[in-house]
Amino acid sequence: MGAVLNSSSDFSLQPRRGLLLGLKGWTGVVAALITVAVLVPVLNLLVPAGSALHLGDYYVALVGKIMCYAICALAMDLIWGYTGILSLGHGLFFALGGYGMGMYLMRQIGTDGQYRSQLPDFMVFLNWKELPWTWTLSDSFIAQMLLVILVPGLLAFVFGYFAFRSRIKGVYFSIITQALTYAAMLLFFRNETGFGGNNGFTDFKRILSIPIAQPSTRMVLFVLTGLTLIGFFLMARAIVNSKYGRVLQAIRDAESRVMFTGYDPIAYKLSIWTLSAVMCAIAGALYVPQVGIINPGEMSPAASIEIAIWAAVGGRGTLIGPIVGAFFVNGAKSWFTQVFPEFWLYFLGALFIAVTLFLPNGIVGLVGKLTGRSKKDVKEVRA
Amino acid sequence: MRRILLLLLLTLGVLATPVVRALTPEEATAIASGETDDRIAALNKATAQADPALAVLVQALLDDAVKVAGGKAYVTLDGKTVLAGTSTAATAPADAEDVVNNNRMRGALEAALGSLRLVSPQVETRRAALVELAKQQLEEAQLPLIDKAWGAETDATLKAQLERMRATILVSASDKGKRLAAAQSLLSSGESGVKSLLQERLAAGAEADPEVRAALQAALTAVEGRLACGERLGVLFTGVSLGSILLLAALGLAITYGLMGVINMAHGELMMIGAYATYVVQNLFRQYLPGAFDAYLLAAIPMSFLASALVGAALERSVIRWLYGRPLETLLATWGISLVLMQGVRSLFGAQNVAVENPAWLSGGVAVFSNLTLPYNRLAILVFAAAVLIGVALLIARTRLGLFVRGVTQNRRMAACMGVNTARVDTYAFSLGAGIAGLAGCALSQVGNVGPDLGQSYIVDSFMVVVLGGVGQLAGTVYAALGLGLINKFLEGYAGAVLAKIMVLVFIVIFIQKRPQGMFAMKGRSPEA
After folding, report:
1. pLDDT value of residue A211
2. How far apart are CA B445 and CA B297, in angstroms?
3. B336: closest CA of chain A, how far (Å)
4. Distance between CA atoms of B285 and B304, rounded to whole angstroms?
5. pLDDT class of B325 with cuts at 50, 70, 90
6. Other C-beta atoms within 10 Å of B368: how many?
7. Helix residue ranges, H only, A190-264
8. Is A75's Cβ below 8 Å from some Cβ in B?
9. What is the pLDDT of residues A330-369, one digit of tens each?
């Protein structure tokens, strides 16, 4: 860590030339675009339900959910895989984004709740007479969406500013981010906090006055999530290939040296940290209308560690790896919990031990090894 | 009801010295059958003699377990029928009729039972009766009964309680001298009930005499001071108690994380294994050695250490040893291990919490003030934590293994050159940390729930303690654990449990900003810096 340069790292600081992606890469992106924006909606909405090609609503919802997770994993890769900072608190930003969206959706229920009140049901239940101040902007979609970005972004910025200025790094940083998300979870579990306590938000009816359960609404959300994921992927790609991104990687490998060469690592770390948090928040905001519930469980330390799991299983420092990891782990989870519910944790645990021990570069690294690709593309990353 | 009680108490008062004699079957029958007035008279006569055997009969009457036939009363208790007032087994004739108690009779029986218990030869019974009595609204009419019990009481605490009850009644007596005396005797009390009583008396109109008012005021000040003292001590004690639990939970981590640099996210699960080992030992004792059940905890302590240490050794040999020097990867791998261990326990013992009982010698507590009781199990954990701490400190500082552990931590290659089997030392050190986690689990099983999620609820706290104390510093761990425990309990008084916890976490986050290396930073050029 820190001043000790890892002997195993073989990063070339040579700037990459040429395009953002190679021919293969762009083919992949275009294929993903077509799948998300054309194939899935067609297979789900236009192909009749009896057909073998019909894609069930369940799978659309599942893939939509996993794409949100993939955004988190991508954000985690930027901060962990490329900058060497392991956050155990990304679930907090995800949940804050989700709560921001949830507040708007709660207000959109209007008087259709259990109690036929203007106030959300849980407030009626708690015998509150008016909205708390935190809900001031919740009637306006635009304002609330700004909050989705601003609140987690600001929190990340302030927290990161103090943490990086004090030169907290490595395990210490991981553990205090864990403390932060744990504290937030305890806070959101309280009814007095004004965000539905234990149960969080659920029972949404509309988004932008459109019924939320309607197939076309779900599809729009799905496509939007997919496009966001692809957009973030291209953005992350641009970032890591830029000079800025190379400084980040240099910080990961030898922060002291970067400092001695005249860079200010704090600004770099703080900006990528905040960006990463905002990406998670957007993922959370896309997640909530598709899944239909948000509660403080998303802020549990375990949920945050799982984000790191997706990134590690897929392959850190590869961008595509974390996306693969998110799909692999969550796909396995939904399969296991249906078929062998009691074996899911064994599998996840074993997967995680095996990946750390045998596949330090994750699935993408394994594929690279098997196909004999040069080590230039698949980089060895050590935390 | 009140008149009956009064009558009863008057009778009791007259016959101040109890005569030890057995209840005769005739008396029992008189209490069990006949007109209500006659029955009550017979009951009162028997009660006045403070006969312990009467309590059995009265209880049976209240439980509707008495039958009457041919001028004889039969009591059925635990499936055995005896002739009332004797211990000779008897069978009630087929035409025996159940004794029916009307509400008046029931009231008299209950009152009799209460006063019988107050003078029962068993201290426990008397204590329970006092607790019952303290719940009632005390009346001047009850004074003779309390006087009598007070006169006969031998236990100092109970005698003091009775005296307070007397004073509580006397404080509203019509005689000024009595009121003054009562105020004097309340001076030494420390009960919250007395405080509200005094406040009531001092409230406008209740007490007119200035002299008595002054005495009452003095008593109130004294009582309030004592209550506040008890409260403060209570916060202190629960704080130290929580601190000792945190210390136990964090000590193992201080070794695995502090000395070895392994972020062991499975530490909580190792604690869980220790708690389940205690559970298993408890069940074995219950099944095979029910006579020695109370000693099970003594056997559970080494067993929980061994169980966790063995699991720890296996983990170190199979997983951890490949990850030394890569702390974040140990974090991820041990997280995987913790998931497997949790699910393993779920498969073996079920997802529900299991019941671990306190042995008899850990139940109850010492009453220091009326509002402060120190439970034995918390005290035991305090002592236990201190013992484990001393043990670990000696092990690290004084033994060959400790020397090797320190040597390997500081300079692995040099230690290896000196002939230390570093791989074996790693295994020993990690199993030691795991074993201490097991001991923590054993201790936790005495105060909290034992379930598959036990570890999860302590892991964040344990890491906070180690990080706050400063990595690699036993002293730091101790200060951090006790400090966090005290701060937490202190804040709880103002903000409630959850907010206190949040404040503590935020405090740690801020503290780490100021001192990134914890309270006791390692001096010199550590590789982390």
Report:
1. 87
2. 10
3. 4
4. 15
5. confident
6. 15
7. 215-241, 243-260
8. no
9. 999 999 888 888 888 898 899 889 988 888 888 888 888 8
Which residues of chain B make contact with A175, given a CB cutoff of 8 A?
Answer: 463-464, 467
Return the pLDDT at A326: 94
Q: Does B521 touch chain A (CB under 8 A)?
A: no
Mean pLDDT: which of A173-182, B110-119, B188-197, B276-285 is highest? B276-285
**ipTM passes above 0.90:** no
Choose the CATH number for B234-514 among 1.10.3470, 3.30.930, 1.20.120, 1.20.58: 1.10.3470
Q: What is the pLDDT of residue B204?
A: 66
Residues of chain B within CATH 1.10.3470 domain(s) are 234-514
Alpha-carbon separation of residue B137 from A250, B140, B355, B373 (angstroms)? 78, 10, 38, 24
Q: How far is CA A217 from CA A40, A209, B505, in A?
A: 14, 11, 41
- Average per-residue pLDDT in chain B? 81
Q: Of A301, A315, A323, A291, nearest to A204 (Cα)?
A: A291
Instruction: Say whether residue B506 is in contact with chain A using an 8 A CB cutoff.
Output: yes
Q: Which A residues 29-68 touch B at CB under 8 Å?
A: none
Residue pLDDT, tens place only, B363-414: 888 877 777 788 888 899 999 999 999 999 999 889 998 899 888 888 888 8
The model carries a pTM of 0.75
DSSP letter at A54? P
- Residue ranges of the domains in chain A? 2-382
Instruction: Give the span between the Cα atoms of B209 and B450, in whole angstroms.
Output: 58
